[in-house]
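Problem: given the chain below (251 residues), write out its structure.
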Amino acid sequence: MKTLLLRYGPYRDLAGWRRGLIVSLVAAVFLTLSGAFGTGGAGWTARLAYWVLLMLLGLVWGSLVAQVFLRSATWGGRRWLGGLAASVVMAAPFTVVVWFFSNLMLDAQTPARALPLLFFSVLAVALVMTALNLALEGRRAAAEAPPPPKFLARLPLKLRGAEVFAVEAEDHYLRLHTSRGQDLILMRLADAVAELEGIEGMQVHRSWWVARDAITRAKRGDGRATLTLRDGSRVPVSRTYAGALRERGWL
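Solution.
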């Protein structure tokens, strides 16, 4: 069961699932005490059992939906859009579950024709729960994120926030190839390579360090390999480093 939850749920570990469970139970207590959505007429024991059951079922159902919508690259990094879509998909079938248990546990006598209106109440809860879990997961991810490579602090102001494609040695200077253009800084290549730790890349020539994601093409011929980068730069690969690049599958 633990393996299934970690594999198919939105959380990366049991700590995430515990957090989701706590959020669900706190929400259940709040909804019970407030008598939300017209449940105030029932006894508090029945309301508590009702909301705890729905929140736990919602946690499991929501985790399955989130596996599709919150881990998809479709949203281009806009997880809030995936959360909105997930909430709608969660609420649609779950409205029937809420309707069934409302009639069963609270004797609500809600007719089936009221399902479209009930959907918006279920959607409101789904949106709040999704937003809470996304916010908590985001805070945790930010706290666990490793510090950025020290080298990024050396980028000139006009290149701050840019993606580093490559670093090229030119006499006592380094030419920075980035997603925002090029510039020079005074530094040794060996020191730069040490401070670039944290970015997937490697030195490919005595004068070049290259980021793996910046490579668009690798060509071998005439005894020497050449890498083409996203900014159009052509980087020579020396024999000294060619073996290591082949081992990593770069060539």
